[in-house]
Every structure is written in C-alpha cells, then in structure tokens.
Write a structure and sequence with these properties.
The complex is a heterodimer of chains A (112) and B (114).
Chain A: E1 3-7, E2 10-14, E3 19-26, E4 33-38, E5 44-50, E6 56-58, E7 64-68, E8 73-78, E9 87-94, E10 100-102, E11 106-111
Parallel strand pairs in A: 2-11
Antiparallel strand pairs in A: 1-3, 3-8, 4-5, 4-9, 6-7, 7-8, 9-10, 9-11
Chain B: E1 4-7, E2 10-13, E3 18-25, E4 31-37, E5 44-50, E6 53-57, E7 64-70, E8 73-79, E9 87-94, E10 104-105, E11 109-113
Parallel strand pairs in B: 2-11
Antiparallel strand pairs in B: 1-3, 3-8, 4-5, 4-9, 5-6, 7-8, 9-10, 9-11
The chains are: A mainly beta (112), B mainly beta (114).
Chain lengths: 112, 114
C-alpha cells in the first residue's frame, strides 16, 4: 500500500536560510508526487508536482523538489526563506486507486 | 466569487443537531471532494464525485451524507455527530478525478461538536 512520511511536524529556519522539508513515500507503481501549501485560515494550494520526465521540478514562490527513485524521496527545498513562507506543507503521492495519499504535514516556522 | 467557496466558515453544533456544509466551485471542474483535516494527521479523503456521480466513499460513517446536485455544488449533511468529528472540513475540485489533476481547495469549515 502507498504511504507518505514527512519527517518533522515542525521545521524552524532563519529568514534567508535554506529550507529543506523532507518527504519519503512508498509506492508499488511509478508515482505521481505533489507538494501542497496551506497558509493560515486558507485551503491548500499546489506548489509543484512530479509526473514523468525531469526529476527536478520547479514550483511557485521559488520552491523546487527532486524525485529520487532510489531513495523513494521527494524533498522540498528553497534556497532562501522569506517570512511569507511560514505555512504548513503537505506531501502527497498517487495511490493505486487513483486517490492521493497525504502526509501529516510539516509546519514551517521562519525566524526573523 | 472565484475559486472554491465554502459556507459556513465556522460551525458549532450539538450532537443531536442536523446541519449542512456547502461548497461551490467556479472553475468549471467536473470532480469534487470532501476531506477531513485533523491536527497532526494526514488529510482523510471522505467522498469523491466525478460528473455528479459518487465514485469514492472511504468507509465514512453514515452520520455524514454527501449530496452533489450538479458539478458546481457539493453538500455535506451532518446529523448526530460525535465530538471526535470536530475538525476542519475541506472541499476541493479538479478538472476530473484523475490523480494527476491539480486539486483546488476551499478555505474549509471549522466544525466543533459539543
């Protein structure tokens, strides 16, 4: 069965520092992989997705993620954190029943 | 209105009440979803509708009853809920229910069951 693990329910970085949010998945079929972001009091919005092709995927707001099949990972990075990046980030993988399997989320805290 | 809207944004109800959550999408999509979001837990998919037909019901208790009268509107009817049903209920839509399609979410209804 498919599953998603996000390491760390909270990640704290200083403004201007590298952001790294970790996502590992298990899947018995080639996966589609997604990162969504949820700002306070809002719904989720898509940051980026991997379907096929290039393994380094660029998304909105300067975020990118790399699909590493051998490590079953899809970590999210951003070179320099902004205060506006404070939000909760969710990783998801396509399930065999064509539904998304979601991680529990990582809350990103930006220190001034 | 644009995107996906949900009403009400907040709802407090007793265990014997009956209430309904409403979702409307203005994106021309054909698939709509209900999710339950509880703190520190993965999103739980409750129901999926594709072209007004229910395609998924993930073992949701019968005290939750969905209704999809057309591709733009989705309701979640609630009755005799339990305190553990307190959560943020999110509605989403996508072009179709294919997993590769981006899902667009509403802001959610924060439900508290007393």
């Amino acid at each position: 069965a498919q599953s998603v693990t996000q390491l760390g329910s909270h990640v704290s970085v200083s403004e201007g520092a590298l952001v790294l949010l970790r996502c590992n998945y298990s899947s018995s079929v080639p996966p589609y992989l997604f990162w969504y972001v949820q700002y306070p009091n809002q719904g989720l919005q898509l940051l980026l997705k991997y379907t096929t092709g290039a393994t380094l995927v660029k998304g909105i707001n300067g975020f990118e993620a790399e699909f590493k099949k051998s490590e079953t990972s899809f970590h999210l990075t951003k070179p320099s954190a902004h205060m506006s990046d404070a939000a909760e980030y969710f990783c998801a993988v396509s399930g065999s029943n064509y539904q998304l399997i979601w991680g529990a989320g990582t809350k990103l805290i930006i220190k001034p | 209105e644009t995107g996906v809207t949900q009403t009400p944004r907040h709802l407090v109800m007793g265990m014997t009440n009956k209430k309904s959550l409403k979702c409307e999408q203005h994106l021309g999509h054909n698939a709509m979803y209900w999710y339950k979001q509880s703190a520190k837990k993965p999103l739980e998919l409750m129901f999926v509708y594709n072209f007004k037909e229910q395609t998924e019901n993930n073992s949701v208790p019968s005290r939750f009853s969905p209704e999809c009268p057309n591709s733009s509107h989705l309701f979640l009817h609630l009755h005799t809920l339990q305190p553990e049903d307190s959560a943020l209920y999110l509605c989403a839509s996508s072009l179709t229910s294919g997993v590769y399609n981006e899902q667009f979410f509403g802001p959610g209804t924060r439900l508290t069951v007393l």
